[in-house]
Structures are given as C-alpha cells and as structure tokens.
Amino acid sequence: MSHIPLLQLSDISLTFGGEPLFANLDLLVHQGDRVALVGRNGSGKSTLMKIMAGLVEPDSGNIVVPPGNSVGYMEQEPDMTGFATLGDYAASGLEPGEMYRVERAAEGLKFDPARAVGTASGGERRRAALAKLMGEAPDLMLLDEPTNHLDIEAISWLENELSATRAAFVLISHDRAFLRQLSRATLWVDRGMVRRQDKGFEAFEAWRDTVWEEEDMQRHKLNRLIKSEARWAVEGISARRKRNQGRVRALQDLRAERAAQIRRQGTAGLALSAGSKSGKKVIQAETISKCFDAKPIVRNFSITIQRGDRVAFVGPNGVGKTTLLKLLLGQIEPDSGSVRKGTNLETAVFDQARAQLDPDATLWDSLTGDADMRVSGKADQVMVRGAPRHVVGYLKDFLFDERQVRAPVRSLSGGEKARLLLARLMARESNLLVLDEPTNDLDVETLDLLQELLGDYDGTVLLVSHDRDFLDRVATTTVAMEGDGRATVYAGGWSDYIAQRGTPKSVEKADKPKQAKAKSGKPAPVKSGLSFTEKHRLEALPSEIERLEAEIAKLEELMADPELFTREPVKFQKATEALVQRQEKLSAAEEEWLLLEDKADS
Predict the structure, then answer these.
(1) Which of 127, 246, 385, 596 is 20 to 30 Å from 204 at the Cα level?
(2) Strand 387-390 to strand 378-384: parallel, antiparallel, or no bridges (unpaired)?
(3) Whole-number pLDDT of residue 1
(4) Residue 210 above 90 pLDDT?
(5) CB atoms < 10 A from the CB of 119, how many?
(6) Spatial separation of the C-alpha atoms in residues 130 and 142, rounded to whole Å
(7) SS3 (DSSP) at 31
(8) pLDDT band at residue 414 using 50, 70 and 90 as cut-offs
(9) Which of 151, 109, 144 is nearest to 128 (CA)?
(10) CA proximity to 487, closest of 328, 330, 257
(11) Dihedral Cα 193, 197, 199, 200, nearest 10 deg
(12) How far is CA 537 from CA 45, 317, 408, 456, in A?
C-alpha cells in the first residue's frame, strides 16, 4: 500500500442533535486503501462518509484532499432534477470517450439507461448513482451500502469490478461476504471514536470483542478501586482520623472518570415467539405453473415444506421470487397444479418495500395504531406476544430512545425503519414467518441477532435475500430461480447450492426431476426408502446437529461462571432455559437422523 494520502481529516468535531457525534477525530485514507467502515446503526458511519465527501460541514477541523486527487461519493437519494432518463443522470459531467464506463456499469448493475427518471424505482435510481460514480472513476470511491437493491449476480459483478480497480475505496455494507472479499483494512466507528485496524473485515469481530473485553476489565478494576477508596474514606471518618484531602479528591476524580465512560449501546432486544403449532406439513405444492404476459414465472414446480423448515428463495431481480412466495401462500392462484396449506397457520410478513409503515405516523402511533397490538383502554401500552408492554419500553428494546418515539417515521434511517418493522413483526405470535429482503439496512450485529432468533424460532421460515452469508447461516433448503420458469430445490444454504449445481449449464429445468449433488459435485447416493423431502432433511440434519452442539457448548461455558447466578440472575435463568431447550432440540434432531438413516437403509 502506498503511503501517499488521498484524504486527510484533522481534529474533526461534530455535534448532532445536541449530542457530540465526533470529537478531535483524525483520519487518513491512502492510495490503494480498501477499507470497510463499520459500526452500529446510528453510530455515525454515513455522517462520517459525508464529511469525507465534503457534503457535511464539521463544527471544527480540516478536510484536505491533495491537489490532483478526486473523491467521489455514491448518493443514497440522488437528486435527478433536470434529467430526463437515468442514463442522462449517470453520464452527466463525463467526456464522450468515458461513456463506455457508464454503459458497462448499467449492464452489470442491471438498469435501463433509457428509463425515465419519473418512473424509476428507488432501487433503479440508486443503481444509476452507483453507475455514475463508476463512470467518473475517482481516485477514492466512497460507497454507502452499494449492494442494497442489487441481486446476487449484480453483487458479484460489482465485487469483481472493485477487486480489479486501482482506485481506493471506503465501503459501508451489511453484506459480510462482500466486505470479507474486498476489504484490507477496517475503520470502526464506536461511541464517537474511530479506530483503524490494517486487517480486513474477516478480523473485525475478534478485534471488537478484544477491545470490549479490555474495556470491561478496566471498568471492573476502576469499580474495585472506587470501592476500596470509598471504604477508606468511611473508615477514616469513623475513626476520627485526619482525612487525607488528596485521597478524597482522587476518589472524586475516579467517580467522575466512571461517570464519563460511555457505555456501549445494547444489542436490539429482539425476541420471536412461535404461536400455537402448525400442522407438520405446512405447504405442499404439486407441479404448479404460472405465467404473466406469456412470460413463465415457474413451470411444473413441486415442493413440500415441513414445520421447522427454513426455505430460502434466490435468483436475479425480476425472476419471480416474490410471485412464487405469493403462490405458495395462496395469495395468487397458479395457472395449473395445486397448492395445499397446512392447518392452524399464523403468518407474519416482513415487507421488502417497507410499505407497512406510514411515513407521517410517529413511532408511537406505528405501534399503538396497529389493531393487532393495541391494548384496550391503555393508550400507552401495546400487546407483545400476548403480554402488555409500555410502548416506550418496547421501543427501547429495539434501540430507539425516548426522543425518537414521537418523531415521524420519515425521519428514520433505513436501518431504523427496518428495526421498527421488526418491532411490529416480533410483537405478533406466529408459526409461519415470511421475510422478504429482511437484511437490507440492518447493521451486522442486528443481523447476528436475527439469525440467532430464526435458529430458535419454533415455526417455519420462508426467506428471500441476496445476502449470501445470511443465507448460509439460516437456510436449510434453497429454491434457486434461474429464469424461464426454472425453479430447483437444493439442500442447505447459498454455498451448498453453488456446490451442488455445478456449472450453470448443468442446471436442469424444473420439470425434470433433479437429483441433489454432494459437495464433491458427484451425485449423492439415492436412498430408495426415503421421500424427496426426507432425503433433503437427512442431508441437512448433520449441520443442524453441529450447530446445536456448538450453541450448547457456548451456554455451558457461560454458566460455568460461579458468580453468574448472584451477579445476573435474569441472565442465568435465560441461559438455563436456552440450554434445556437446545438439549431437547439436539435429542430430537439426533433421534430424527437415526430414524431417517434406518428408513433409508431398509
């Protein structure tokens, strides 16, 4: 990496809404830097990037871009006033000889340059803004969530482009696989500080945990010192000894130091509750087909979804993933074939378009105005999984503070809107959870928590996502939609799908039975005694058992702390309940595996 700086921030301070966001911040970005910019939602990542781009003026400090260098920023909500088409906007300011870069980006990012600005969706506008930045080819690219609204093919294209570029870039993204692939350094925004580590995102979580452990140790030492000094002060007074004023002042200073420490923001208090159990068979589709305007969405597709399955739907934007979901949920009818839904289903839906939120309603009204959540006669309480909760307390579980509860939804960031929707969704009891692009705008830690919740959820999950890492962590079955009506069922998540399908040419059409392949690429041996679904379940169980064993080991390690019960009785109780639950799930999974193995060999 060259040591020539492309951008220098010196002694930057910024106060936002009465609270200091940054103070005395120094930062350098060099030629060749490939930086992941990480931090909690609301920590100031996007604001820092706008400072770097010169779009937000700090209260004090200097921003220096050496002569001859250029910095480009991808607009989140680009102003396209005065431009007729997306292509006109993306090409503005470019020389005729540079136009090919925009055309190439439009093809890779999958948007139509001839699309009129007035009819373009938010996602298309963002893709045009990304194409404009790539066409400008600055020395330093500032990219805030560039993969939002991109499908997996477009994400792969962008990944390859950024891997090959000679330009430096700083990335904000919730997409772990994208960050791991591209970053070589990490900037961590945390409680007004920005720390740098010259390692990629792969090393971030270990680094973060080490920093937090050191903080906890220092806090523990400080608390012990304060207790010791306070005891001395009390004993000194009771014995009528002359007090050492210097030590008294030192005790006051220690207490002031503790008060000045900024506590880490808690993790969003997410919890999912399954309602009454559905029947064992949740959805059975038999050779369903659907066309729109003579375009086949799905042809002769069959699937059986059992209670507890986590089924992911993947494929390019526009291929029909949401349509297939609606077919399976009975919201639209197939042209041919049949869909049978199981008994006692209670469905909860997380909406990709965030359309369930009224932009003019306050956060308070967004919860209390929901008929399913309203508590009769209590204007300040909402029903959460069958129990009344104060609306402010419940919103605090999702990291909103009291000043925000009366703010309009339109004032929220994308991540905050996603958290508010999750708050509404998770208040409901359900046994079938439909998540259409849940990962957009969520920070990495909230994604971690959502993944854990889905692992513990007793119901069935249908999931549409372009986040490869999240798919690998959550899905037990993947339905790949590859155009022309082809939809194929694979065991496991994204990586399993890639390993099983071989080259794209080998993907057979959905109307021909496809045998799942092992990760070696060779066909898995057919277990003649098993149904199609049972075979996939048998293949998925070993990884499920391995995950449960790892979670049990973690919980046993936590409960090995002899002081946990007296120090944190609620945490101890929750850990005990979680351990019993996972041990029961492990026993059931092992028993199911043995039964299926016996049946396969019979």
Answers:
(1) 127
(2) antiparallel
(3) 46
(4) no
(5) 9
(6) 10
(7) coil
(8) confident
(9) 109
(10) 328
(11) 10
(12) 42, 28, 45, 18
Contact by Cβ (8 Å): 279, 292: no
Strand pairing class (193-197; 185-190) = antiparallel
One-letter identity of residue 594 = L
Highest mean pLDDT among 253-267, 295-309, 343-357: 295-309
Q: Tell me how far apart the alpha carbons of residues 129 and 123 are, in angstroms, rounded to a whole number.
A: 10
Burial letters 545-579, b for 16+ CB under 10 A, else e: bebbeebbeebeeebeeeeeeeeeeeebeebeebb
Neighbours of 295 (CB within 10 A): 12
- Of 51-60, 332-341, 423-432, which range is least confident? 423-432
Under 8 Å between Cβ of 310 and 473: no
CATH T-level fold of 266-346+428-524: Rossmann fold (3.40.50)
Q: Using 50, 70 and 90 to split pLDDT, how confident is the model at 257?
A: low
- Strand order across the 140-144 sheet: 71-73, 140-144, 168-172, 34-38, 185-190, 193-197
Nearest-angstrom CA–CA distance, 475 and 162: 28
Q: What angle do CA 113, 115, 120 make, to 5 degrees?
A: 120
> Of the given ranges (218-227, 340-349, 449-458), which has the lowest mean pLDDT?
218-227
DSSP state of 423: H
Q: Map tokens 């103070």 to a residue.
A: 23
Give the Cα separation of 481 and 223 in Å (integer): 57
Question: What CA–CA distance (Å, rounded) separates 31 from 3?
Answer: 7
Q: What is the mean pLDDT of residues 386-397?
A: 84
Which among 49, 21, 23, 24 has a CA at the least distance from the CA of 35? 49
**Predicted pLDDT of residue 159:** 95
Tokens for 574, please give them: 């929750």
Q: Give yes or no for residue 503 having a pLDDT over 60.
A: no
Q: What is the pLDDT of residues 271-297, one digit of tens each?
A: 665 666 777 889 999 999 999 888 899
Q: Could you tell me which residue, 352 or 542, shows the higher pLDDT?
A: 542
Which residue in the block uniquely carries the two structure tokens 């041990």?
583
* Cβ density class 245-281: b for 16+ within 10 Å, e for less: eeeeeebeebeeeeeeeeeeeeebebebbbbeebeee
Residue 217 has pLDDT above 80, yes or no: no
CA–CA gap between residue 149 and residue 153 (Å, rounded) = 12
Does the pLDDT of residue 471 top 60, yes or no?
yes
Q: Which helix (H) or strand (E) holds 338?
A: strand 336-341
Q: What angle do CA 191, 439, 401 make, to 5 degrees?
A: 40
pLDDT band at 48 (very low <50, low <70, confident <90, very high): very high
CATH superfamily of 5-206: P-loop containing nucleotide triphosphate hydrolases (3.40.50.300)
Q: Is 137:130 a contact under the CB 8 Å cutoff?
A: no
Which strand (E) or helix (H) includes residue 24?
strand 19-30
Tokens 């000045």: give the residue: 260
Answer whether residue 239 shows pLDDT above 60.
no
CATH of domain 527-602: 1.10.287.380
Quick one: tokens of 211?
């920093």
Identity of residue 299: R
310: nearest Cα among 491, 492, 476, 539: 476
The Cα 248–Cα 233 span in angstroms is 7
